[in-house]
Amino acid sequence: MSVTIERLNARPRADSELATLSDGAWPAFISADKTVAAIWDRVRGEFAHLELAAVAASGLVATGWAVPVRWNGTLGDLPAGFTGTLLRALANFDGNAAPNTLVICAAQLHPGVQRTGLAARLLNAFIDLAPGYGLESVIVPLRPTLKHRYPLTPIGSYAGWTRDDGQALDPWLRTHLRMGAKVLCPIEVSQTMTGTVPEWESWTGLVFPASGTYVIDGGLATLDVDTEQDNGTYVEPGIWLQHPVISGRNVGSSL
Ligand SMILES: CC(C)(COP(=O)(O)OP(=O)(O)OC[C@H]1O[C@@H](n2cnc3c(N)ncnc32)[C@H](O)[C@@H]1OP(=O)(O)O)[C@@H](O)C(=O)NCCC(=O)NCCS
User: Fold this and answer.
1) 157: closest CA among 237, 88, 72?
2) Which of ligand 1's atoms lies nearest the C-alpha of 167?
3) Predicted local distance difference test score (pLDDT) of residue 22
4) Inter-CA distances, 24 with 21, 52, 108, 111, Å
């Protein structure tokens, strides 16, 4: 199948095309991070030049997006996960602090094109964009795709789990590591999702009759529910990765 990678804003995209791609790709509570919700439109607007699309004859088959941040290259200066990345991207933008790092925030593939190598192609397209914007590092606050099957396992342990062949147990982590990325450190708090008990019940399809800790579908960790306060809090972990940047590899790229 022939697939072209281009900027998402290279041409108009029907909302239905974008919705088809994200349908079923994310748990319903993914948008319940109030900090992210408050800045979401602005982030996507300011950095629209860092959104990519993969297009086949059938239409849009994958998208991904990234933001630029200033990072001094140390573990201590990494943004506070996914949410901290978006906050820093805007703070750097507003403060005229020249960014030096591309953060790949998300990628999603239509189920029909998964396991075809397109995911790695899309990641490489991001890595190739970086030098053209003066961004010398590429990092990822990874949302590991199999972690939801191990919601009780600390992220630091999970990140180190391997299969019999020595490769990472997590499929999405495996793809990045195979491309040459390295694990920087686990992210204990990448996002914090909050909502009322009824909201959590609608997002998860469960009922929460009493306060406590619950395993939820699609959750990389557990949900804490407080019925007296009428709230639920879910803290999503992740894994910081860094990709090597090969300067000049994208000479001739049309992106
Ligand atoms: C994450 C995502 C982009 C990866 O795309 P992909 O096409 O599956 O990636 P790859 O082809 O590189 O596959 C990676 C590995 O996962 C395996 N895999 C993919 N889908 C699988 C599935 N449903 N069940 C089991 N294994 C699966 C592949 O076989 C491959 O294994 P290998 O390393 O042994 O070869 C895609 O699954 C997706 O869009 N998911 C929904 C959105 C999401 O979670 N994005 C990531 C967070 S931003």
Assistant:
1) 237
2) 33
3) 87
4) 8, 20, 11, 10
Reply yes or no on whether the pLDDT at 20 is more than 90: no
| Ranges assigned E (strand) in 17-155 | 51-56, 59-69, 101-109, 137-142
Q: Which residue ranges form the domains of the chain, and what is each CATH number?
A: 4-191+237-243 (3.40.630.30)
* 158/151 Cα distance (integer angstroms): 10
Place of tokens 């147990």: 169
- pTM attached to this predicted model: 0.96
- Sign of torsion over alpha carbons 51, 139, 176, 163: negative
Two tokens, residue 110: 């239509």
pLDDT digits (tens, 9 = 90+) for 59-104: 999 999 999 999 999 999 999 999 999 999 999 999 999 999 999 9
Per-residue pLDDT tens digits for 146-159: 999 999 999 999 99
Show the tokens assigned to 29. 């509570």
d(CA 65, CA 49): 9
**For range 31-40, the mean pLDDT:** 98
Which residues form ligand 1's pocket by a CB distance below 6 Å? 25, 106-109, 114-115, 119-120, 143, 145, 171-172, 174-175
User: Of how many residues is the chain composed?
Assistant: 255
Q: What is the pLDDT of residue 46?
A: 97
Is 64 exposed, middle or buried (CB count within 10 Å of its CB: 0-12, 13-18, 19+)?
A: buried
What residues have CB less than 8 Å from 122, skipping those under 6 apart? 5, 52, 54, 62, 64, 107, 109
22 Cα: distance to centroid of ligand 1 (angstroms): 14
